[in-house]
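Human: I would love a firmer grasp of how sequence relates to backbone shape in proteins. Take your time, and here it is.
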Amino acid sequence: MEVLLGITGKDFVLTASDATVARGIVVQKRGEDKSRALNKHNIMLFTGEAGDTTQFAEYIQCNTQLYRMRNGMDLSTKAVASYVRKELATSLRSRNPYTVNLLIGGVNPKTGDPELYWLDYLSSSVKLDYAAHGYASYFCMSTMDRYWKAGLSLEEAINLLKKCLEELKVRFIGNLPKFVVKVTDKDGIREIEI
């Protein structure tokens, strides 16, 4: 019952993840942040098996930081998505593959161009203008398809996200009371309340 959402705008990426950790019919924890800042301009949201998500997210986060220390520069959003896809593909061919689904969003600090990548546990990767993982895709993709347009302002993107969350409240059987919403732009990553 996990939900990840991502929307690109004029010069930012707006992401949201539910803050509930559940297994089967039991809610194990509320208030969980299912995202990791990979560097100042890239964020990764993750969902999947509990141990896999934490271990894989920390592994990717540490390796992107190691790249910056060794090379003196951050990876671009496209480079991060390619690296993560390679790691998922390698893992898929091992005895213990990671079962994680990801959204990777970021902004090029020089040009301000936003990028959003959708990756799944089979190491499929695609660049999209808006994306959803989990049950949200059944309810929110049509809303985003209807209302998303190129060059969205932050206010318009927040309104679109609110429409998606309202759709989940009305139609989805699961109770997802809290979402962690973050904006990534040329100034960095920040959490916002909606």
